[in-house]
User: Fold these one by one.
Assistant:
Number 1:
Amino acid sequence: MEISENGFIFSDNKNLIKTGAVHYYLSTESYWAKNIPLKTVAKSIKNSLCFGIYKNNNQVGFARWVTDKATFAYLCDVYVEQEYRGLGLSKKLISFMIFHPDLQGLRRYQLATLDAHELYRQFGFTELKNPERQMAIVIENI
């Protein structure tokens, strides 16, 4: 799938993803993946349903779903480059992603965020109703 709007291209075509650009952002700019190795980013892209935002052949945004495409999808690694924020690109990206044909009819869409709650609420995300039922193994600074 691919759409164009105001000179930006939103696409799920993995061949367009600039792994080096995604790695640079995640490893240097994100709070959730500081210092992540390039090899790990490349493997995560390979094994996920990925989406990019492009302007003049440059990667200006990225996000991915970790999903079985049947019951569950976890949204992660969402970003828009600083100079392109405030243009509504993250809203357009999330809308493009959540209505993707491979993700219709799932039982659960989930994510974690430090500071973008209001963005995700616009798409129906809410805090967990029973957080005591959720568990995780979290390995810090792997």
Note: The chain has a mean pLDDT of 94.
Number 2:
Amino acid sequence: MSSLLTPSDLTHEDKVVWLEDPSQLDYVRQALDKTPRRRGKPRYHRDGRMIGFTELSDTAEADPDSGLQKRRVFYLLPHDRDAEPNGLYREGAPGEAVDPRTIEPRQVGRKTVRSQGGALA
């Protein structure tokens, strides 16, 4: 789901909150997670670490089936380029990876030459 984000998935985003300085990272992975709240740091259930997340406006409605809010989470896994510069993603990047400099509320992040490790995006 994370690599298939569309602007319509993000219409209620109000703010991007960074837990780490994104300017130091070539890419972050983005995913749309279901959380019980619109604001605050969501629970994190992946390997690696959460880099940031979005907060939603007060008008955001919960998913009718689950009662949960859909929010973007930005993260990195232990084998990503920041931790292993000569590893698997020395060139290229995971499908859900985007340049953190392109992330704004209500806008899907974009791949760039930098996020792709010099490869064409």
Note: The two ends are 20 Å apart (CA to CA).
Number 3:
Amino acid sequence: MSVPEKQLYYSPQEYLALETQAEYKSEYHSGEIFPMVGASINHNRITVNLCTILNSALQDSNYEVFMNDMKVWIPTAQTFFYPDITVIRNLPEFYEDRTDTILNPCLIIEVLSQSTQNDDKSGKFDAYRSIPSFQEYLLVNQYHFQLEQFSKQADEQWLLKEYDESDVKLQLVTVDLTIKLVDIYKKVI
């Protein structure tokens, strides 16, 4: 009895059909599907802390906050990613009228892990930058106080600010909000 050969290339529609029925999440990049690993307790705490802060501050504004089950489609990279946190301005724009895949993030936050940090810092950031609405990217280290903030400048360049002390405050660029790092890392460190 022969073993069926594993399919090497999937169309975006094939990926979405598989993802709808899958027991676990996977990301899609240029025809390939990559299973996602589970997140640690610190990863979850940081994500919940940030979502709570953002949702509370933005609830009466024209911004909306989504957690890690909302996909982002990046057409130029032919990629579907699941950011840890996504913020949109105004109404969500959906990929092919799917309510689980948005096109218009303005702020994306990724909580880094050993297995994802290289891709979050390079490949994903390269892809996210091609989205016209995308203005700000935060990379949060889950192991110690360290946060990198990239904000889009008028001339299509990105400004990097680094934070690595518990008593500093992060000033978001996309939304008018200041966050203490100690609040992001509550119950983590």
Note: The mean pLDDT is 92.
Number 4:
Amino acid sequence: MSDDDGDTNRKRPNILVTGTPGTGKTVLASLIAEQTGLKHINVGDLIKQHKCYDGHDSTLDTHFLDEDKLLDIMENVFQECEDENIGIVADYHSCELFPERWFDLILVLRANTEILYDRLTERGYSEKKRSENLEAEIMQVVLDEAREAYDVEIVHEVMSNTVEDMESNVERCRIWLNQWTANNS
């Protein structure tokens, strides 16, 4: 087998775009999918669509995730895409809950706190929720989680402050995808 973990014979890779809320995950994943032919999966939308939650935290105005339900649904989606020879680019603000075998590249988006503050304010985040997310970005919580959950070779920290950053990240993914395809054909 030509892939690193020997777990699959996939012909198309899977990418996870992760990062603190407001770093541009959904925008980047959409652009990558659009330019590479990978299927975009917005995990947050999947959670809402299939009601993958166990209650609500009114303080942070967020639902408690039912991880087992989500992972069962995603396992089916990944299998269908693999059967159809379609790669996936998924986006979600957390990464450690996903099996390592699912992804070939993890992009952890980072943003300057001033830019992130403005983005979260525009979304109408409460002061508490905004502060919690800014602290998570400062403490690089998502990056550390990614480095602990996946082989550090596939985890890449990329900036996501400007349109130019996004364009550069899409181009880097396109080049990486071409190389992955060449190495795994």
Note: Residues 108 and 157 are 5 Å apart (CA to CA).
